[in-house]
Each structure stands twice: as C-alpha cells, then as structure tokens.
Amino acid sequence: SKFLCSAAALSVMPVLAQAACDGGERVIKFSHVTAVAGHPKGEMVAALAERFDEQFDGTMCMEVFANSTLFSDDKVLEALMLGDVQLAAPDVGKFDAYTQKLQVFNLPFLFDSTEAVQAFTETEQGEEILMSMEGSGIIGLGWIFNGMRQFSANRPLVEPRDAAGLKFRATTSEVTEAMIAALDATPQALAFAEVYGALQTGVVDGQENTWSNIYTGKFYEVQDGVTETNHQFLTYLIVTSPEFLDSLGDDHEAFTTLVDEVSAEYNARANAANEAARQAIIDNGGTVRELTDEQRAAWVEVMKPVWKRFEADIGTEVIEVASGGAD
Ligand code: LMR
C-alpha cells in the first residue's frame, strides 16, 4: 500500500546515512565539497571520522558528507552557525563574508609550497587567524593543505594573454576574482559542485584548481589542457562552532588533539597526493603544459600586482610574515 511504501522509504534513509553510528551515539556531522579517494581533504576527513569513532565509541560518532552532498561551501558556514553541521573545512577563499584575514593565503605567488604555508600557520600572525571569526560564531581548529592551483581552459594557455577574453570559474574569493580580472579575463563565481558541468557546457571557458581537484573532479576531460602556473596554494581551514566545542565538555581537548594529529599526518602526504593526481591526468590522456621560467615570470608579472589592493585589509605585517619576512 501507499502507506507501507512510504514508511519503508523513511526507515531506510536514516540507516543509509548513519551507517557508522550506533544507536544512542551523538552524531557529529562533517560537511565538505570534494572527493574522498586520492584527495588530501577527502582522505584526511575520512581518517578523522574513523579515529573519532574509535576514540569516542559508545558516546559519539562522526558522519562525513563529501562531494557537496549536504551543503556547498557557500551554505556550510551558515549551517555551522545554525548547528546543522558541527564541522567543515572550506577553502580559505570562502570566508570573505566573515574575515579579510584569510585572504593572505590566496595572494597569487605568495606561498609556493606546503612548507611555506606550514611555517606561516605556526607564526603568531597565522595562529591569530584561527580565532579571527569567533565573533561570528566560527572557530578555526587547524589547517588542511592541498597544493598549488593551476589554470586550465578550453584552449592552450601559455602566455597570460592567452587567457584574455575568456571566462573562468572563480571561488567567491575577492582575491581570486581580482587575479582573473588582471588577466583581462572574466571571473564567474560558481560553487565547486558546478564546475564540471559549467566547463562541459561552455558556461565558462576555464577554471583554476589543484591537481587533486582537477583530477578527481575530471575537469581535465573537458578542457584543452592544464598549465602548470602554480599560482596559489590551496589551504583549508577546519572550522567548528563555539557551541559544539563547549558541548564536548571533558572531551574538548581530546577532540582538538585528534584533529591536530590527523591533519599533521595527512598534510605531510598532500604533496604526494597532488603529484599522483598530476601523473594520473597525463596517464588518462589529459594535457599538462609546463612553463619555462620566462613564461611563468610573465604570469607573475600580470597577477602579483593584485596584492596591493588587499594590503590594507590583510595587513602589511601579516603579508610580510607570510612572505617569509620578519616574525
Ligand atoms: C574550490 O571551490 O575550487 C575548492 O575550494 C574546492 C575544495 O574544497 O577543494
């Protein structure tokens, strides 16, 4: 009957969604937008959930919603503040509505390696960023590293002028939009989940992302090629709410220690994950274009001047420290 049918459907869905949680356990939700296998963030979050379940077995369990299946990055921070999710790890370029401080990570050609990003996060200026959104109800717990972002388009990109006139998908980062505009190209803000379709249907001509995102998102399949511009380092901020941390009571410290341990372990593997993804793109028939030093210098010359526009918001001292200057 109709009744039995809908009752059956209702009883199946929660079971599927909470496979790892036992009855009576408090469910903690972690929402993110990327793939899991072969992805630095996806694998880190999966490992965190596994260890969380072991450590807090019987009292709490973690459910991970990857691939934007629960919230896209433009919705997840609101959901966090409303208590609909407890954890997320958006790209640092997605916090512009709450703080300007994180934009330092996105300045083109500032960070060139995981080591440089890590060194900055360990400075006083880097650590202060974790609590910079406390007033909005967002607390930074730590960082997940991905890797360097690369430009791709539906035609070969070698010189910066090759990008002129094209439309590129952008995150909601103002720095990224300015960087694309500096190429005389048009930025089009789109959620990560929309990128593949937008490239495939020609809504945008190109995009920029890390090897692991370009590979797991299959973007290379609908692009002429990927040019190794290494223009920005993609860092994620692991975020939660003060309410969630308070609710942990005595488990608060054990939880933050676990986050620190798992992120450190997976951050040390991020370079390898991106190198593997780069190679997998080539092995699957994608085109990877390397730039000569002279060609890359031309991209630096065009995009790096956007720093100036954000200096006042970010703070010149923060930029100096991030660039490897005085601490
Ligand atoms: C993007 O939207 O390009 C990335 O921030 C996606 C991600 O989370 O890696």
Shape: globular
Strand content: 15-25%
- Write down the overall mean pLDDT: 93
Share in helix: 40-55%
In angstroms, what is the radius of gyration?
20 Å
The small molecules bound here are: (2S)-2-hydroxybutanedioic acid
Number of strands: 10
Unreliable residue stretches? 1-18
Task: Give the ordered list of helices and strands.
Answer: HEHEHEHHEEHEHEHEEHHHEHHH
**Given the structure, what is the number of helices?**
14
Quaternary structure of the protein: single chain
Summarize the main sheet.
5 strands, mixed
Structural class call reads alpha/beta
How many angstroms separate the termini? 70 Å
Report what the structure shows.
- With 327 residues, the chain is α/β, with parallel strands linked by helices.
- The protein contains 14 helices and 10 strands.
- The strands form 3 sheets. Strands 4, 7, 8, 9 and 10 form a 5-stranded mixed beta sheet that branches. Strands 2-1-3 form a 3-stranded parallel beta sheet. A two-stranded parallel ribbon has the order 5-6.
- Strand 5 (167-170), helix 6 and strand 6 form a beta-alpha-beta unit.
- Helix 2 (40-55) packs antiparallel against helix 10 (252-267).
- It is globular.
- It starts with a helix and ends in a 5-residue tail after the last helix.
- Mean pLDDT is 93; it is low at 1-18.
- The structure holds (2S)-2-hydroxybutanedioic acid.
- (2S)-2-hydroxybutanedioic acid (LMR) binds at residues 33-34, 91, 146, 171, 192, 209, 213.
- (2S)-2-hydroxybutanedioic acid is lined by residues 33-34, 91, 146, 171, 192, 209, 213.
- This is C4-dicarboxylate-binding protein DctP.
- Residues 1-19 form the signal peptide.
- One of its GO terms (cellular component) is outer membrane-bounded periplasmic space.
